[in-house]
Design goal:
It is a single chain. By secondary structure, the chain is α/β, with parallel strands linked by helices. The protein has a single domain (about 1-195), classed as 3-Layer(aba) Sandwich (Rossmann fold). It has helices spanning about 15-30, 50-55, 65-75, 95-100, 130-145, 165-190, 200-210, 220-225; strands spanning about 1-5, 35-40, 80-85, 120-125, 150-155. It has a five-stranded parallel β-sheet, sandwiched between helices. The longest helix has 23 residues, at about 165-190. The protein is globular and about 60 Å long. The protein starts with a strand and ends in a 10-residue tail after the last helix. Bound molecules: flavin mononucleotide.
């Protein structure tokens, strides 16, 4: 299984350890090939809001040299894992900065068919609060990239560092990661045959109708046309 991990923190703290445990559990079930990115090391910029990705193509983003290798790794993966520590009840700023750069491939712009048959995990760790909000932020990107099957992992660790986590909690994390590893592995194996989300179907039809009338962004419209989606071809 090919796995791409976007680490929303550089810190080898609780998020990193939980994620590593998950990778270990998956590798016990099947052979894995893992590609990891660390933020902000691998994507150092904020979106400048220039609209160039939307209007002129993603290769014209001022930060394309850092964005393109990440997109290529997402395209290659069977399983995409987005991770974040909870900061201020949400994802880390560095993860949000990356997600902002990837709006061009949302269903509302130029969805990437290579993202459609994937499994995605939104993976958050907190001291106490903000898990649902944080996983929702990550989930929104997976959902709007058109990822077929999605899971969330929410860990409240009541600690500032991994070594402070109680033995009881560690036991629970171990069980949770084993269970998530099983579910994600089964989902990857079954991805071709599983039903896609209803949201994706509805969004696709809505956007198709909008793209037919799109006279404000030829780059988006041409993408839909080139895929054959404006002439009846269905991606899912
Ligand atoms: C800047 C910052 C903001 C934080 N905000 C929250 C928060 O809003 N709610 C919360 O429960 N914990 C908060 N925390 C605690 C972390 O979410 C928690 O310690 C988490 O396990 C850290 O993950 P890490 O060990 O992977 O760095 C914050 C920590 C930092 C450094």
């Amino acid at each position: 299984m090919k796995i791409t991990v976007i680490n929303g923190t550089m810190r080898h703290g609780s998020t990193w350890h939980c994620k590593d445990l998950l990778l270990e559990k998956i590798s016990q079930l099947e052979e894995t090939q893992v590609r990891e990115f660390y933020l902000p090391k691998d994507m150092t910029s904020f979106c400048s809001g220039c609209f160039s990705c939307f209007l002129n193509g993603e290769n014209t983003c001022p930060h394309a040299d850092q964005i393109q290798p990440i997109v290529a790794a997402l395209e290659e993966a069977d399983l995409v894992i987005l991770t974040s520590s909870v900061y201020a009840l949400d994802v880390t700023g560095q993860l949000k900065a990356l997600l902002d750069h990837l709006c061009f491939m949302w269903l509302s712009h130029r969805p990437n068919p290579k993202m459609f048959n994937k499994v995605g995990i939104s993976f958050a760790t907190t001291a106490g609060a903000g898990l649902s909000h944080s996983t929702k932020t990550m989930e929104n990107s997976l959902k709007f990239w058109g990822v077929k099957k999605r899971f969330a992992s929410k860990q409240a660790v009541a600690a500032m560092k991994w070594s402070d986590i109680s033995d009881k909690k560690r036991g629970q994390i171990d069980k949770d990661m084993a269970q998530l590893a099983k579910k994600a592995t089964a989902a990857v194996a079954n991805i071709e045959h599983s039903a896609g989300p209803l949201f994706r179907k509805i969004m696709f039809v809505m956007m198709k109708n909008m793209m037919k009338k799109n006279d404000w962004n030829p780059t988006d419209r041409n993408h839909w046309e080139a895929q054959g989606w404006l002439n009846g071809t269905k991606p899912f």
